[in-house]
């Protein structure tokens, strides 16, 4: 039963990842077809991310009221309906309206499942959870590329993804009763208590000094939030504008560019699969640092004029980003205390979605005023700020423990 349960959680994250990569892959064709400006994709991305911020902030109280299983089911239905609406939308106004439930559905399931796994499973499960998000994010551009190339229709791509989402919703509905049963089993499992004891022991000193403090006043919290802000800013900016960059700056066809963006998400997916095994031997902190260095290397390669070096750079960015987000999330209970982890993870995800909301549109505005060729420079700047913030957290917590 426990194996079926974790598989359901992984499937839910596949459903979360598929829509995240669709818009950027479809936009080189979708934008002109809808009569939208080049930068309008940034506005849509901002509305979607705004919905995720709202739902992630309220996810804790929603889970307490109706349970993680029902939240997952409702969220999947919301995203499926919104995607079907995208496929049928007659104008950009409808795209904006439908972007709201798409974001609300994504945010609730994301925050709820991340908190559950961070508190109840070891680091490799967190990496694999986000690996399955990458599976979904990789599938999205592949499907969109196929429908653009073979059917000359981005709408059919959205319809296909909507069908997949509704199918997952049926699976979630059929297995709804498992959530409470598995929760009761895990509560009685001594291994669950061992995970909790390990986290409590690692965070004991921090809890003793900060249990009554405001979360933002705790050492390292503000810097962690900045790292989340720019992590999601980088991931979303490359995902949203990567295809447009390859079309506009590298003169690729739209379907070929969508395929390469799929490989970018594939790099994130493969990286998280591998990271899940490495976490058994290597700390989250070391993996996060290595990932940042690899992503910076990929950003530099994206500047190179020679193919396939800049395409390899795109994949390296994905591989480098892979361990950062799940690693930072999983470290939360150990770094800042279990009693703060639920609220802090909600804060982290809200700030992360703020990065998704603001930074891709910011790049869209910059590119509109200048050129799409500035993408690698902006990506490198975002990566640099993220790395500096993450290293600052390590330094503050190390000083606090001495």
UniProtKB/TrEMBL annotation:
Belongs to the major facilitator superfamily. The chain crosses the membrane at residues 34-59, 71-89, 95-116, 128-148, 160-179, 225-245, 257-274, 286-304, 350-367, 373-390. Its main location: membrane. Keywords: Membrane, Transmembrane, Transmembrane helix, Transport. Signal peptide: none annotated. Gene3D superfamilies: MFS general substrate transporter like domains (1.20.1250.20). It is a multi-pass membrane protein. This is MFS transporter. InterPro entries: MFS, MFS_dom, MFS_trans_sf, MFS_Transporter. It comes from Paenibacillus lignilyticus. Residues 5-393 form the Major facilitator superfamily (MFS) profile domain. It is found in: Cell membrane.
């Amino acid at each position: 039963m426990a194996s079926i349960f974790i598989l359901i959680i992984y499937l839910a994250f596949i459903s979360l990842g598929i829509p995240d990569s669709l818009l950027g892959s479809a936009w080189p064709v979708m934008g002109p077809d809808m009569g939208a400006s080049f930068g309008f994709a940034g506005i849509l991305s901002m509305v979607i991310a705004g919905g995720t911020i709202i739902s992630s902030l309220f996810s804790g109280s929603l889970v307490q009221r109706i349970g993680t299983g029902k939240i997952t089911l409702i969220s999947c239905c919301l995203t499926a309906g919104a995607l079907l609406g995208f496929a049928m939308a007659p104008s950009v106004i409808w795209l904006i309206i439908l972007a709201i439930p798409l974001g609300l559905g994504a945010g609730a399931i994301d925050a709820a499942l991340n908190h559950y796994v961070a508190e109840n499973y070891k680091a490799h499960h967190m990496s694999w959870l986000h690996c399955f998000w990458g599976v979904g994010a990789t599938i999205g551009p592949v499907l969109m590329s196929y429908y653009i190339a073979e059917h000359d229709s981005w709408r059919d791509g959205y319809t296909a993804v909507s069908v997949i989402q509704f199918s997952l919703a049926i699976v979630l509905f059929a297995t709804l009763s498992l959530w409470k049963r598995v929760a009761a089993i895990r509560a009685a499992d001594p291994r669950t208590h061992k995970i909790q004891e390990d986290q409590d022991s690692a965070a004991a000193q921090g809890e003793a000094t900060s249990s009554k403090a405001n979360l933002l006043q705790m050492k390292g919290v503000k810097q962690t939030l900045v790292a989340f802000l720019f992590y999601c800013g980088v991931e979303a900016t490359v995902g949203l504008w990567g295809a447009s960059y390859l079309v506009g700056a590298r003169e690729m066809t739209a379907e070929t560019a969508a395929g390469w963006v799929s490989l970018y998400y594939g790099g994130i997916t493969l990286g998280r699969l591998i990271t899940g095994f490495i976490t058994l031997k290597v700390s989250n902190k070391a993996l996060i640092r290595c990932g940042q260095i690899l992503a910076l290397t990929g950003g530099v390669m994206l500047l190179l004029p020679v193919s396939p070096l800049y395409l390899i750079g795109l994949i390296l960015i994905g591989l480098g980003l892979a361990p950062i987000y799940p690693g930072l999330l999983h470290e939360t209970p150990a770094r800042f205390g279990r009693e703060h982890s639920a609220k802090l993870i909600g804060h982290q995800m809200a700030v992360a979605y703020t990065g998704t909301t603001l930074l891709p549109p910011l790049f869209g505005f910059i590119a509109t005023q200048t050129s799409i060729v500035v993408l690698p420079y902006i990506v490198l700047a975002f990566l640099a700020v993220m790395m500096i913030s993450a290293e600052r957290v390590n330094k503050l917590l190390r000083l606090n423990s001495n």
